[in-house]
Amino acid sequence: MVAKGDSNLKPREAEKLMSSQQTQTSDDNLDERVSFLYSAWSALLDESMKRKGKSPRGAKGRRSNVPKAPHLENCKLSEQLNKKLDKRVENESFPPWTLWKGLLDTYPSSAASKRLKSDGAYPPWRYSGFKSQHESIVSAFISLRLMSCNRAWGEPWRYMQPTTDVNGTLIASHGRMGERWWRAQGVRYLMRFQTEYTCNLLNAERHSAFGREAAKLVLATTAKEWREEVTEEPQSDIERFVWSNHKPWMPRPYISMHVRMGDKASEMKVVGFEEYMNLAERIRKRFPHVHNILVSTEMQEVIDKLRSYPHWNFYYTNVTRQVGNTSMADYTASLGRKTSTNYPLVNFLMAAASDFFIGAMGSNWSFLIDGMRNTGGKVMAGYLSVNKDRYW
Asked: Which domain of life is it from (predicted)?
């Protein structure tokens, strides 16, 4: 997890820029209103990040004059809510987030949250039918006492619907099924809430990648000229307590694609980028409305090949990448600690939230992304892999 104290971020820093290859006009030809709104959001984002989410002095009127950015999250409010949900309350065995309360108790008059107790409830990152009041799934994972855990919790991976595709076949069983399931629980727990710092990183990436698209959407649905409208309308209860829980906007549906090459060839079968794109075409054949791909890779040759697929929209983090067979250790060292930590974290979280995922089962990074997706409501979206795990 990224340290909270290091928060002097700017959305236009090189390590957090996300580029897009799209068949559209250049920035110079963009509608003037779209560019103006994008710049206004950029300024507000800079201010909020510098002040760690606090409203800058004298900016109240100016903020009310700018339409809400659908792709940006209120990081300060989000962190406050996360702390509330993750803090044990009196006479409760688990913190509120484990009790299926969701955000019900954020509404002052909610009686449902008072009636909902821990009896019979279990955390949403646990698979249905497996619960324990005496030993948490996380302590079981960390201790690696798999045999005792299996006796207490069973082996749910043995009868779950297979969702991983390799060479057109669903993989029903392999030697790491148990490890895959338990690791997914642990990763989900450790990543259950984002810090304000991480939230700011994601805001900066989304704004760089999708900010202009979001501006077009907002201006297309705004009845009044926003630069002349200065009255801030009060939020309704449904906006404050229901719609506020929706995730920031992204151009869905999109595929996350993690392309692993380079020195990984010593551990697994490495395939060319064309094989990954063949899997993307399989998805598009079944879902023709899919045309966005978020690419994460260390290899510059992959980025260079994106122009060969003009009928896809590609998004990728704009950082220096590997050329040739440079070792991963040398590559990350060349980026520096901050960049080599921040940009993979952002790619990881955006991949976990994607509608489809293409990766390599022999890659540990793909392994972790798959675990986050399996415990985050994406399991039935499937996982298309270009190879089998190296331990099979």
From this structure: Eukaryota
Residues 6+ apart with CB under 8 A from 341: 2
The structure tokens listed for 72 are 């940006």
Distance of alpha carbon 61 from its chain centroid, rounded?
A: 32
Find how far residue 386's CA is from the centre of its chain. 22
Pairing of strands 18-21, 313-317: antiparallel
* pLDDT, tens digit (0-9, with 9 covering 90-100), for 102-161: 444 444 444 333 433 333 333 333 333 334 444 454 444 444 555 566 666 778 888 788
Do 211 and 249 contact (CB within 8 A), yes or no?
A: no
With b meaning 16 or more CB within 10 Å and e meaning fewer, what string describes 171-207? beeeeebbebbbbbbbbbbebbbbbbbbbbbbbbbbb
Residues with Cβ within 8 Å of residue 67, at least 6 apart in sequence:
37, 218, 222, 226
In whole angstroms, how large is the CA radius of gyration of the chain?
A: 22
3 state DSSP class of 190: helix
Question: For 49, which DSSP code?
Answer: H
CB 21, CB 313: distance < 8 Å: yes
Q: Which amino acid is residue 49, in one-letter code?
A: M
Compute φ and ψ for 384, nearest 5 degrees: -100, 120
Helix-strand-coil split of the chain, %, nearest 5: 45, 10, 45
The DSSP element (H or E) to which 254 belongs, if any, is: strand 254-259
> Cβ(345)–Cβ(199) under 8 Å?
no
Give 99's DSSP letter.
Answer: G
Q: Which amino acid is at 345?
A: L
pTM for this structure?
0.75
